[in-house]
Amino acid sequence: MSTEEKFNQAKGAVKEGVGKVIGDEKLEKEGAAEKVVSKVKEVAEDAKDAVEGAIEGVKNMLHKDDDK
Fold first, then answer.
1. Known Pfam families for this protein (predicted)?
2. Which of 12, 19, 23, 41 is a Cys-bridge partner for 27, taking CB atoms 3.0 to 4.6 Å apart?
3. What is the full per-residue pLDDT of the chain (68 aa) written as tens digits?
């Protein structure tokens, strides 16, 4: 999980909260959108890491088979 994405999610939450408090619907929606975009990026990053890990696992299994 990226620190940058966590920061962006927090920033979005603050914007959303401030928008609600002051009655600025546009700011509220911008904050909510920032949170969603950051979350999607975080999930995509995690998925990429998982796929890379799986590929490395398969490569390691194949190399072990080659050593036999």
1. CsbD (PF05532)
2. 19
3. 578 889 999 999 999 999 999 999 999 999 999 999 999 999 999 999 999 999 999 999 988 867 66
